[in-house]
Amino acid sequence: MKKKIALAYSGGLDTTVIVPWLRENYDCEVVAVCGDVGQDCDWASLEKRALASGAAKLVIKDLKKEFVEGYLWPLVKSGAAYEGRYLLGTSAARPLLAKSLAEVALAEGCSAVAHGCTGKGNDQVRFELGVKAFAPEMEVIAPWRIWDISSREEEIEYLEKRSIPVPMKKSDSYSRDDNLWHISHEGLDLEDPANEPKLKGMLKMTTPPAEAPDTPEYVTLGFAEGVPVSLDGTALGGVELVKALNQVAGRHGVGILDMVENRVVGMKSRGVYETPGGTVIMEAHAKLEQLCLDRKTLSFKMMVGQKFAETLYEGEWFCPLREAISAFIDSTQKNVTGSVKLKLWKGSISGAGMSSPYSLYDASLASFTTGPLFSHKDSEGFINLFGLPTKVRARLAARIAAQGNAKPAAPGPKGLEAPID
User: Fold this and answer.
1) Domains in the chain, number
2) Does 221 have pLDDT greater than 70?
């Protein structure tokens, strides 16, 4: 009986090459596994490509609802952005895809799993940690770490020699990853940070801001305990809400990020990310938290969110630390309920009002007009106490300066200085 290997399959260049490579080098049957996390895909065509490349079968798992509710909404509630900017689109999907790959591999009786991640990338870490969490004894094959192919050009040549259709145009061979939350672009001219991104020919979800409509558009997002639940007053499920926002925000050029980031393996890489709907959701959520969370909780949560981002980026979703962080974050979201209105215009987002039944904003306190809850006289005592350490340090500095200007003291007994008269 032939060995069976489950391959995390996308239909892109790498995994198209890996199917025949596995068959040639392991004399095996390849079960291609693809998780539907909202990527733009012709599923019937994908199956034909998988079989044409030599796969025994293609297993497609519909993961969209689980992706949004189990991974994206925790990300939104955390407010996390890796290195303060990247909204973790690829990172958020990888744990779920790895979990699905392991489950299919076990169900199909496979003795190994394989993936198309390079030895330079983050995804090898994310996939393999995810597989270990659900199939700890499963062999993992990573062709990019062991084969002699060294470039995307050689991959194309490999397919052409075997008369296997190349799944892209040679002139548009950016390395891309897309799902419901985003699409990323790497490689080609982006490998030189000095090059300006060629947005017009590159972008798939988003209109270049210069070509976006001249008239702004307003959207209103409703939240319940930190989770988006409605758009412009209409209740929507998570998948539908993200899709709708992608269209609106994408039309207005919102959510384009050109970033050089620090990978898990230690090197820097450059990518262009499109996260139209996600950018709007994260902005609206942050604004609502400003209204509903007290100062110290919000400040501490921002630090925790940074750790959440690092943990997710590094592929440690299925670990006690991430679960503990999420438990804390969930406890902060009980009152993050309300609505936020935003204006979208040529790549920008600006606030246009927000409200919440749990708002901590009190007009009588914030107004320049004195209200019944606040007395200006109380501030004097507060400032005296709050500034006491500053005052003590200043007095000490003055004494030291005065002593420095005095004449040196005469030596006292046993080597001690005599006090100054």
Assistant:
1) 3
2) yes
